[in-house]
Fold:
Amino acid sequence: EAQLVESGGGLVQPGGSLRLSCAASGFSFSSQSMRWYRQAPGKVLEWVATITGSGDRTWYADSVKGRFTISRNNARNTVYLQMNSLKPEDAAVYYCYDVNSNRGQGTQVTVSS
Structure:
């Protein structure tokens, strides 16, 4: 059974940085692409970024391109989301998803001064 556990969220000032982690287990991690999504209160779930299983290709939503970086460590079964130059509109619960649409409990990101 796939399990995904996100961590690393918190409160950060505008312009600050956070690195989110998603620890995966229960499936062949290195063979799957992984994705990050986010959901702000009252808004629909928004795709943020995707990375291939090998980590050689990445894709980003226009809203985060140039500020966020998705990466992975297959030896640790973990995918990361480095978030820089954070804006108040980046505040949301962030989720990692596998290809079967399993996700964890999410991690809250709050951007406020």
Remarks:
- The chain has a mean pLDDT of 97.
- The two ends are 40 Å apart (CA to CA).
- DSSP finds no helices and ten strands in the chain.
- The longest strand covers residues 18-25.
